[in-house]
Design brief:
Order of helices and strands: HEHEHEHEHEEHEHEHHEHEEH
Distance between the termini: 41 Å
Number of helices: 11
Strand content: 15-25%
CATH superfamily of one domain: Isopropylmalate Dehydrogenase
Number of strands: 11
Oligomer: single chain
Structural class: alpha/beta
Strand order of the largest sheet: 3-2-1-4-11-10-5-6-9-7-8
Helix content: 40-55%
CATH topology of one domain: Isopropylmalate Dehydrogenase
CATH architecture of one domain: 3-Layer(aba) Sandwich
Length: about 325
């Protein structure tokens, strides 16, 4: 499960190349009133990953573009008064069928997600919303999906079913096969004193009974046993997942956030972020993201949008 140092970002390049073969989805870019937020949208549009609609105060967006030397002359702008109004207007564009995805600009995540999850006029579905990091980790051959590190703080067992199914569906869309899910804990044995191990065992049995579909599950697994064949062999773990997981379900947001940021800042990984479970994918970026991570986030959203278009065509046929 290794790659040469010269192959860094190859996983993201493959995602971007796959997305470029599809029609670029129309994306409502919410309140891009800061340099990196606007630049990310412009770069993604230039590469054919998205067709952006900028949503925010027109004068402020144009001033940011001027200061940053960005050409937005051909990009439509939906005027709004402030960040909350931007989020609401972007959601309205989706509900009206004028946008296939949302992209976070320079507003707080809570403001954007608040508009998405509104019971009246939001973008909820029957599936619980959850976040996935699609990680490009140097030295790791495949993309690594980590969930949930940004939305659900202490998810229940019932909520983890949706979180897990969202991640599995994403992995399939990204062409990851087979999807191998490690349900993480601190140990690889079921321990009644560690609730996450009990939940891991329950989730695996749910998969056996067809309540969770599309992947091979194993857990509880400690992180080393999930991603290192050597560590799994030392522990004498015989499993189709141990040592080669490409999706990891963390016990809670704190664990997921620390894992993703440790990989980013200690191992030089990039983290593309996407929210699933709403009517459309929501691209979450931060000012700390690399250019590669921003573009990969857009590529992931593009692939999801293309998959949904294909499903809609099949339903009509």
């Amino acid at each position: 499960m290794t790659e040469s140092s010269g192959a860094t970002h190859q996983k993201y390049q493959r995602l971007i190349a796959a997305a470029q073969r599809n029609t670029a989805p129309i994306v409502a870019v919410v309140h891009p009133c800061e340099h990196s937020a606007l630049e990310g949208a412009v770069d993604a549009a230039r590469l054919g990953l998205i067709t952006p609609i900028l949503v925010g105060p027109v004068a402020e967006i144009r001033q940011v573009a001027t200061d940053a030397g960005l050409d937005i002359a051909t990009l439509p702008i939906e005027d709004s008064e402030h960040s909350r109004a931007s989020a609401q207007r972007a959601v309205e564009l989706v509900r009206a069928g004028k946008a296939e995805a949302l992209m976070k600009g320079s507003l707080h995540t809570d403001e954007l997600m608040g508009a998405v999850v509104k019971s009246d006029g939001g973008l909820r579905t029957l599936r619980r919303l959850s976040h996935c990091f699609v990680m490009d980790v140097p030295g790791h051959a495949d993309p690594l999906i980590i969930t949930d590190a940004a939305i659900n703080i202490f998810p229940t067992l019932a909520e983890k079913i949706d979180i897990l199914q969202n991640a599995i569906d994403l992995a399939q869309i990204l062409g990851i096969t087979p999807v191998r899910v490690a349900i993480l804990s601190a140990v690889e044995t079921v321990n009644p004193k560690i609730p996450s191990t009990i939940e891991a065992a329950a989730l695996c049995k749910m998969a056996d009974r067809g309540q969770i579909t599309g992947a091979i599950l194993d857990g509880p697994l400690a992180l080393d046993n999930a991603i290192s064949l050597e560590a799994a062999a030392i522990k004498h773990l015989i499993s189709p997942v141990a040592g080669c997981a490409n999706v990891v379900l963390v016990p809670d947001l704190e664990a997921g956030n620390m894992l993703a940021k440790s990989l980013t800042f200690l191992a030089g990984a990039d983290a593309a972020g996407i929210v699933l479970g709403a009517r459309v994918p929501v691209i979450l970026t931060s000012r700390a993201d690399s250019v590669h991570a921003r573009l990969a986030s857009c590529a992931v959203a593009s692939l999801i949008a293309a998959s949904r278009r294909a499903d809609a065509r099949k339903a009509i046929a």
